[in-house]
Amino acid sequence: MGRQPCCDKVGLKKGPWTAEEDKKLISFILTNGQCCWRAVPKLAGLLRCGKSCRLRWTNYLRPDLKRGLLSESEEKMVIELHANLGNRWSKIASHLPGRTDNEIKNHWNTHIKKKLRKMGIDPVTHKPLYPPPADQKKQQQQISSHTVEFADAEEDKGNKTATQSPISDANEEEKSITRAFNAIEADALLSKSPGFCTDEVPLIQLDEILVPRASASSSSSSNSCLLPEEIYFSSIEWTESLSLWGLDDFTSWDSICDDGDRKLAVDPFSQYQRVPHDQDSWKFELL
DNA sequence: AAGCAGCACAACCGCATCAGC
DNA sequence: TGCTGATGCGGTTGTGCTGCT
Question: Region entry Disordered: which residue ranges (predicted)?
Answer without folding.
Answer: 123-173
